[in-house]
Amino acid sequence: MANFTAADVKKLRELSGAGMMDCKKALDEAEGDVTKAVEILRVKGQKGVAKRESRTAENGAVVAVIADDNATGVLVELKCETDFVAKGDKFQAVAQQVADHVFATAPADLDTLLASEIEPGKTVQVFVDEANANLGEKIVLDRFARLTGGYVGSYLHRTSPDLPPQVGVLVQLADAKADVAKDVAQHIAAFSPTYLDRDEVPAEDVENERRIAEATAREEGKPEGALPKIVEGRVNGFFKEKVLVDQPFAKDNKKSVQKVLTEAGTSIQGFARFRVGA
Description:
It holds the Pfam family EF_TS. This protein is an alpha+beta fold.
């Protein structure tokens, strides 16, 4: 058994971003030499990529990039296995570089993004695989959002002060209303709407809610004559839960988000919300 301390393991983890057991094995092989252990981890890193594919990646970071004129914004989620890696500078630098690349190249979809060249002769997929190897954890890039036109604002929320943002929101308004964009983005972060407006809700989902509402009312023994009003009330409740513009506004629940937008003289054209691992 090589002679090394817990401090050596900690130092190696900070230098390499690798997991604790990988660091201990590398130090064993390097006979306690931290510098040599770093090299061992780098050499073995690419071999470990395939082994890590079956692991789950539920930690990570959300990064936003907004144009100076607020005409365009992007949101990228990069996932890893542990909060230890997520809070590291190396992982966050990878996430930022990917977000900058998305902003610069405007890929049409994820496949296009992964196949695009982020560095000379290196695709995004290879770049992520190298991060996987160097950090010693499964690194996953499987979604991004890009909004352009009107005024795009963002909000990033930290669920813990020592972690990078875990929730990110983009909001696209028709007019340059920075304060409104920020307020609505914070609302979206907190209340996680599914749809922008009622037109986005699939008709079959609405009909399903209507059927459930009617069946529930009958089960509760509500009068037949009152059923239509009860059903509509419960369907409206579904809209208030799922539809952004129908939701009670976070800062004043006596107003809907739509009313807040109308009073501000603007409208919302789109939004995106990511929560790491969700």
